[in-house]
Amino acid sequence: MSELSDLYQEVILDHSRHPHNYGVMADATQKAEGYNPLCGDQLTLYLKLDGDKIQDIRFEGHGCAISKSSASVMTDVVKGKSKAEAAALFDKFRRLVTDPTTVKIEETDKLAIFSGVSEFPVRVKCAVLGWHTLRSALDNKTEKTSTENL
């Protein structure tokens, strides 16, 4: 394994053990739940919107290191962004973990740590769970988001 891959793996494990923006948000303006039936990952995402801007975001739940760290990084990168900017980041991330040749990403980009996920197709659903749940929260959908049909 390359030094960069080792570093990415360490960052993923650190985000899994010590997730950022983790916990309930009592004053959330929107909330969505996500579930990956393949491995049992579950999360609840809380948003506080100020107009079109994600003023604050938190999540709680349980799952594998990939799903938890992906949700943690996602909360870091979308906080303070508009809905349109968050949607563009969702698209960039989805392409990164499904077909990385279609997206330009710098090693310094926080999303880069997930660049190897595409090599493990069964883990893609783990990585995108939080992101699809974010889309549901932004769209104010009330039904649980499932990765089953993704």
In percent, how much strand structure appears in the residues?
Answer: 15-25%
CATH topology tier name: Sufe protein. Chain: A
Q: What's the total helix number?
A: 4
Q: In terms of structural class, how would the helical and strand content be classed?
A: alpha+beta
Distance between the termini: 30 Å
The SSE string, one letter per element, is: HEEEHHHE
- What CATH first level would be assigned? Alpha Beta
Number of domains: 1
Model description:
- The protein has 150 residues and is α+β, with helices and mostly antiparallel strands.
- It has a single domain (3-144), classed as Sufe protein. Chain: A.
- Helix content is 42%, strand content 19%.
- It is built from 4 helices and 4 strands, in the order αβββαααβ.
- It has helices at 3-17, 65-78, 83-98, 121-138; strands at residues 30-36, 41-50, 53-62, 145-146.
- It has a 4-stranded mixed sheet, with helices on one face.
- α1 crosses α2 (65-78), α2 (65-78) packs parallel to α4 (121-138) and α3 (83-98) packs antiparallel against α4.
- The longest helix is centred in the C-terminal third of the chain and has 18 residues, at 121-138.
- The radius of gyration is 14 Å and the shape is globular.
